[in-house]
Amino acid sequence: MKAAIITGASVGIGRETAALFLADGYRVFNLSRRECPLQGVENLACDLASDESVRDTLATLQRELAAAGEIALVHNASQMLKDSCDACDSDSLRAVMETNVVAINSLNQGLLPLMKTGSSIVYVGSTLSEKAVSASFSYVISKHAQLGMMRATCQDLMGKGIHTALVCPGFTDTEMLRTHIGTDPEVEGLIAGMNSFNRLVQPVEIAELIQWVHGHPVINGAVLHGNLGQKES
After folding, report:
1. 59 phi and psi, to 5 degrees?
2. Structural contact between residues 219 and 213, judged by C-beta atoms closer than 8 angstroms
3. Over 70: is that where the pLDDT of 175 sits?
């Protein structure tokens, strides 16, 4: 049995990724507070900000996947706030890190013992894993942390047949982006104009990259950019 475990597979990139793995014969699990509407996806209600919820979810996965072969573990879910270095209290920063970093570590720790040769851990980062913009303070910190986690994971898993990579989407037409920038066509045009093709990246384009990463261990430890060629500021 091949399995794909995807956080935040209810919408956007996560849902498109779930659809691709389903079509390829994988047993697909969505770890999210919301259900994925795709038929065949197994929804496990999970609040990534809650240690208890993550532990309960891991217990279920450990039972269900005891006899699994290769596993694709896709860390897709993220929390994004509008904040800045002078207006982000430590509790807010801690909450973002719980979802975007600590939960990833907990899932890795709980699932690595089940992962056989051919498995992968795919981190869905961001352009902001390697650069920064204003008004995204805690998100930028967490995405930089994911880059370090991916590289450290690669080194620690040497020789175990499990590969990892960080997929960094550019401005992608997702619910998260719309929450951050709104739906004003003028604003969308300005954002879209920041890449070579003058459009937003589509979620399925990132999903296809994630699926490709899982099947190609040659990219172990790599950072892959899916941003249509962003203009340098």
Report:
1. -60, -40
2. yes
3. no
User: Which residues, at least 6 apart from 32, have a Cβ–Cβ distance to it below 8 Å?
Assistant: 7, 8, 9, 10, 14, 43, 45, 46, 77
**What is the rounded average pLDDT for all residues in the chain?**
93
Helix axes 12-23, 203-215, angle to 10 degrees: 50
| Nearest Cα to Cα of residue 103 among 159, 32, 209, 36 | 32
**From residue 96, how far is each of 21, 50, 90, 93, 229 by CA, in Å?**
28, 12, 10, 5, 28
Dihedral angle of Cα 91, 96, 97, 100, to the nearest 10 degrees: 170
Instruction: Judge whether residue 232 has pLDDT over 80.
Output: no
- Longest alpha-carbon distance in the chain: 52
pLDDT value of position 40: 98
Percent residues over pLDDT 90 in the chain: 83
CA angle 227, 230, 231 (to 5 degrees): 175
Least confident range of 111-115, 126-130, 177-181: 177-181
CB 29 within 8 Å of CB 7: no
Q: Which residue has the tokens 């793995």?
A: 21
Give the pLDDT of residue 180: 58
pTM of the model: 0.94
